[in-house]
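Recall the central idea of this unit: under ordinary conditions, the amino acid sequence of a chain determines the structure it adopts. In this exercise we apply that idea directly, starting from the sequence alone.
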Amino acid sequence: MHTHILPEKLPNFAEKFGYGDFIYLMNNQDGSANMMQGDKFFRRIQANCWDPDIRIRDYAKYNTQVQVVCTIPVMFSYWAKAKDTKALAEFLNDDIAELCEKYPQNYLGLGTLPMQDAEEAIKELERCKKIGLLGVQIGSNINDINLGEPEFFPIFEAAQELDMAIMIHPWNMMGMESMRKYWLPWLVGMPAETARAAASLIFGGVLEKLPKLRVCFSHAGGSFLPTIGRIEHGFNCRPDLVAIHNNVNPRRYIGEFWVDSITHDPKLLEYILDMQGSKRVMLGSDYPFPLGDLEIGQFIQDMNLEQSVVEDIYANAALEWLNIDKSRFIIDGDNGKQVELSEKG
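Accordingly, the structure predicted from this sequence is:
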């Protein structure tokens, strides 16, 4: 359940703020755009990164009506001054809220926050709630500080009080500078980052203290669930190092958080479903980027899963995570097909 989106026109915030390599867009004549980071080329994106109608048509090919959209993680900009990150977040969040208001049967929105400053982050979280967003997407670390550290706890506490869902996406991957070759930050670093976030929230006591906080870890939880045996063994054999802030076995939290279905591997998805239960596994896509599941759940159709499990993945798990009722949607298509929610950024 995650899909990424940007405004078609993204101004140069570095010029506005007077510093920094904020991402901006250089629109090309062929309808594409170059994402620029300062004077460096970052990535070329196509119109499906912002055109709502193209996206709706692409998802319709795979019987998906509803997309949960959030920004691209590189836009987090936690490195900047908090007031400037908040201004950027307001711009991005307003754009997503406007999209969701215009296409209520096709889009649900997650915001972004200036996580480097808890007070500013909570203000924007409250504003996200007011403008109709259902939660926020945050990074797996904040300027290399783990999410389980005390300075972030008030943000998570506010999210629980406001009934706002949290999606955690890997970014700023650890060890990036030492493994640039072979695209290893994306292939190896991202799964490790997501496991880092899950472990830090558990060992830091956040999930224990906030049992009603609804958290989703993207990319099927990264390497957390496949390595839970090692994590649990470390908890048991070195409690003096591991269980210092939370003495609850980490395995107990499995099934209390959500993950998406992006495994690229049916065998691994079977394992994830066995661990989590189908009500905690949501359809994911990472659309429109090539490392995502751009056939949007087609491999799930080929797995011969029970229909109730498929319906949980395609709709029920995400509806519960976002705390919304399916009745708000008019289901398009024949035979009243399930709404599938995928997260797009």
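The first strand starts at residue 3 and ends at 4.
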